[in-house]
Amino acid sequence: MNVSGNHESYEKTVLDNGVRVVTERVPYARSAAIGVWVGTGSSHEEAAVRGISHLIEHMLFKGTRNRSARQIAETMDAVGGNLNAFTDKEMTCYHARVLDEHLPLAVDVLSDMFLNAKLDPGDLRNEQKVILEEIRMYDDSPDEVSHDLFMRTVWANSPLGEPTIGYANTVSAVTREAILSYMQARYTPDRVVVSAAGNVVHADVVRLVDEKLGALRGVFAGSEPPQPSFVPAIVGQHKDCEQVYILVGAEGTRADDPLRYPVSVLDAITGGGMASRLFQEIREKRGLVYSVYSAHHPYRNGGIFTVAASASPAHAPDVVALIREELSRLATEGVHADEVARAKEHIKGNLLLSLESTSTRLLRLGRSELSIGRYVSTAEALASIAAVTKDDVDAQARRMFAPDRLALTVLGPVETQHVPSWFGQLARSA
Hints:
The model has no long low-confidence stretch (mean pLDDT 94). This protein has two domains: 2-213, Cytochrome Bc1 Complex, Chain A, domain 1; 234-422, Cytochrome Bc1 Complex, Chain A, domain 1 (2-Layer Sandwich), CATH 3.30.830. It is built from 16 helices and twelve strands. It is of the alpha+beta class. The strands form two sheets. It has a seven-stranded mixed β-sheet with strand order 1-2-3-7-4-6-5, with helices on both faces. A five-stranded mixed β-sheet has the order 8-12-9-11-10, sandwiched between helices.
């Protein structure tokens, strides 16, 4: 068992079988948040079983050799706890939040689900139907459809670009045997991280996890997805809905790239809040949209920067042109020093306020360990943001927002043949 030193109430232990336990003590909290993570997600799936990671997440709630699905829910409800899970492109997390005194119970329930899931064929058929309804729900949400279309377009031929939920035909085709094979290959101790935050004692968490997961065996038998190649394509797709959904994107940075800090500052300036350039120009000044925002999505092998907006069909061409003009202005003229200062304070405030939640700390611990391979302390993150200069931000704006590096996806009641011209025209004055 390998134990790391304490840093800002952070501690890490690697169990003899390779399971990593990371904790962050918040002694003034009454809650304890704990998550069992697996370093596998939709980007690790074969095309024929697209969506299997998300389906497994659902199945682990359907009962174990020791508890029925109802008993799992009632056990957590009886102590006022929350139990949930999520799957994304690179990882899956099963997590709970309870009063600190009930942490042993949370560890017991999570480990029982993780190790002893029944994976009953009847439950599998029912849960496949549930996910098919979830897919239909997403299909009725133009916002979700547009994001999926954008990702499949800019990361074409990469599993990172495929939707985490999968497709109706691939989800329906998953068998119990396929689930067992997938879990045997990928739910291995060297891919498992247990993170806990709140009023927890590291040694106690390690002991609880070792008792439950210390006997887990196996070695990761798969491979990581290759680095995706960004395609700056322009795509329009017709859909009967009230608004036009717009995504403009560029290639971002990896999760472990130090350039993610100037990109975060650029994100805040571009569309990260009510004072951002796009919000002020498109919503406040012209009233063309209700929502316009930017976001940076870093992964282990690549990153995506997006600007998202929705507008009426009459205003959509102008919104696209305005986004393009603002990104071009950032690329050619750079940012202002006062914008950089405000953006850095904005990021600092968001980070520090988020740390009042033990659940946020739990997520930050697990994501850092799986995406970066180490803990990024609050002090390190704040120092890295503070060190960002105007020149750093300008360099990223030039790299990301060059005209030939931007992608556009438009979904809605539009004549798709006209969409490419929206990127080249000038916005009409308000």
